[in-house]
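Try it yourself: sequence plus cytidine-5'-monophosphate, in.
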Amino acid sequence: MSNQNKSLIVRAPAKINLHLEVLGLRNDGYHELAMIMQSISLSDYIEMYPNIEGSITLQTNIDNLTIGEDNLIIKAAKMLKEISGDKSLGVKINLIKNIPIGAGLAGGSTDAAAILIGLNSLWGLNYKLEYLENISSRIGSDIPFCIQGGRQLCFGRGEVLEKVESFNSNLGVILVKDPTVQVSTPWAYNKYKELFESDYLTEEYAFERKRNLVRTSNWIKHNLNEPFSLINDLQKVVLPVTPSVQNALDIFSNIPDCVAYAMSGSGPSCFGLFRDLNMANATLNKCKDTFTQSGLTAWSCSMQSEGITTIDQ
Ligand code: C5P
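Structure, out:
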C-alpha cells in the first residue's frame, strides 16, 4: 500500500568502467559487451514525496537537464506505475545532481535505478530486486547494474550481471572531465561499428571465451599491486576527436602513483586509480592546477561495494 506520510532520500552513485570490450553485434542491434563496472562514491541524491493524485513531477538543482518524458527518472517512475496497474500512484521528485551529464558515468541510469528502488518502497509494491533489475533493462542497458552496484561483470548488452562479492574496494579514484564536452553514447557505438565491424566476433563460443577471460582477470583475483593497463574499446573512437580525453590520459600517465587510468564508458570523463583514497586526495591536491589549466574539473572519490541506498526521512 502507498504510504502518503513517508518520504525518502535515495543516494545514487556513479559508476566507472574498469573494463569495456565490444565483442560483436547482437540481433537486436545492440552491441554484445564484456564489461566490469564499479560504483564510486560520487553520487546524486533524490528526494521522493508520494501522492495519490497520480501526478509524477520532477524538479532539479541544475538548468541543463530536461525534466520531461525523455528523462530516465520520469520513464522509470511511469514504467513502475504502469506495471503496478494503480493509476492513483504519484510522486514529486527532487533531484540533487552532482554527477556530470553525458560523461560515461551512468548518471542518468543510476537516477532511474534510484527511482525504481525508492518508489518500490514508497508505493508499497515490494517487487524483488531481481525483478526491478529485469524491468529496468527495458529503459537502459546500464540501469540493472546500478541497482545493486558495487563491482559486477556485465555481459549481454550490459544487463547480464555477475556480482563480484568480495574485492579490493579501497582503491582511490580521481575522476576528471571537461565540463564543456559531452559524448553521445549512440554516436560512440555507431562510430565503433563503422570502424571495427569487420573485426567483430560472431559466434557464441567466441563471446564466452572473452567472458571467461574477464571472469579470471586481475579485478577478480585482487592482484592490483603493479601498474597495469585498462581496456576501454570506445576510447579508440572518442579519444581522436576529444582533446580533453587525450589531455586527461596524458596527465594520469605522468603521475607516478597512478596505478591505472582510462576513459569511462563512452566518455569523455576519465579516471585514474590510486592505492587508497588518501593517496587520491593527496594527488588531487598536488595536481589540481595541472587539471584546471587543461580545462578539467577533478574529483577524488572511493570505490564502493553497494549501489542504490535509501536514507529514511
Ligand atoms: O541502452 P542504452 O539506452 O543506454 O543505450 C544507448 C545507446 O547505446 C543505444 O541506443 C545503442 O546505440 C548503444 N548501445 C549499444 N550496445 C549496447 C549498449 C548501448 O550499441 N550494449
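One thing you can check immediately is this: The pocket of cytidine-5'-monophosphate is lined by residues 30-31, 33, 140-142, 157-158, 185-186, 189 (CB under 6 Å).
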